[in-house]
């Protein structure tokens, strides 16, 4: 049996689910996820982190220049 729910209920259930604000290069799964999301190789991601730190926002700014 299919149970229908309101879209607002589904969205409300996902509030608070966010990607972390920093990248942990010691966590290979996390590093690969962020490399994929930022469309860079894991090596380029590591180099960007060395330059600007692990903040996702800082890395995005760095990669866009």
The biggest sheet, with number of strands, parallel, antiparallel or mixed sense and barrel status, is: none
Please report the total strand number as a whole number. Answer: 0
Q: Name the helix and strand elements from N-terminus to C-terminus, one letter apiece.
A: HHHH
Helix content: 55-70%
Mean pLDDT, rounded to whole units?
86
Note the total helix count: 4
Number of domains: 1
Description:
- The chain is an all-alpha fold and 65 residues long.
- It has one domain.
- 58% of the residues lie in helices and 0% in strands.
- It is built from 4 helices and no strands.
- It has helices at residues 7-13, 28-38, 42-52, 56-64.
- Helix 3 packs across helix 4.
- It is elongated.
- The N and C termini lie far apart (52 Å).
- This is Serine hydroxymethyltransferase.
- It comes from Afipia felis ATCC 53690.
- Pfam families: DUF3606.
Q: Gist?
A:
InterPro entries: DUF3606. This protein has helices at residues 7-13, 28-38, 42-52, 56-64.
Output the keywords.
65 residues; 58% helix; mainly alpha
Blueprint (SSEs and pairs):
Layout: H1 7-13, H2 28-38, H3 42-52, H4 56-64
Helix pairs in contact: 3-4
